[in-house]
Each structure stands twice: as structure tokens, then as C-alpha cells.
Known about the structure:
Radius of gyration: 14 Å
Structural class: alpha+beta
Oligomer: single chain
Number of helices: 5
Strand order of the largest sheet: 1-4-3-2
Number of strands: 4
Strand content: 15-25%
Amino acid sequence: MYIFLNLINTAARADSPNYNNITNTMQEPNLVLLDSHGVYIPQMYCADADEHWANCVGVDYNDVLTCQAGPDHEWYWEAWQSILDNASIVSDGVTWRLHQDGDLWEVPDGYEWPDA
């Protein structure tokens, strides 16, 4: 599952055994969705996101709702771009952001993609 959603969901539960011990030792990007999902990537990514998640990762909840509405929504791509530009979360001192190059990734700050 996604780092963004897992960390928020775990941290949101004060009774969780991991509440004060959220760590992620992986410093490599995490593949979230393959580009084979095409225009549905934003909708699929936002499918389980709620207002709490949006607030925690720094995105406008209206953008989440727009993406959940699907690619026929007039502002779908603008909302998705806003999410890509603004979503971030800190885990164990590492800031993670979204990156889409066809596939959708969660990428730690400072990661350098290898030369192709």
C-alpha cells in the first residue's frame, strides 16, 4: 500500500502500537501505480483518500474529490497536477513526494534517478 496512506492511517490512530514509532527504512522510490492504468491513475490514487489524509499531506480536499469523480470531470487534470505538486509527508525524517513519469511513484527527497 502507499506510504502516504499507510503513514497517515497509522498515525491517525492514537491507540495504534506504531503511533509514536512510524519508520520507513526504505530510501528508494516506491512504485504506486503502473502507467497501464492510464487516465485513471489520479482517480485510483485518490479513491481511499479522505479529508484527514488531504490535510495531512498538504493538498486541497476539493482536488481529491475532483480526482475521485474521474477523468470526465472538467478540472480533473488540474486537480491532479495540484496534488502532484503539493503532496508530501515526512517519515522518520525523510520527506516523500509524488512523482509521475507515466508510472506513479512515491519518492524520497534527494533521490536521484539513475541515468537511462
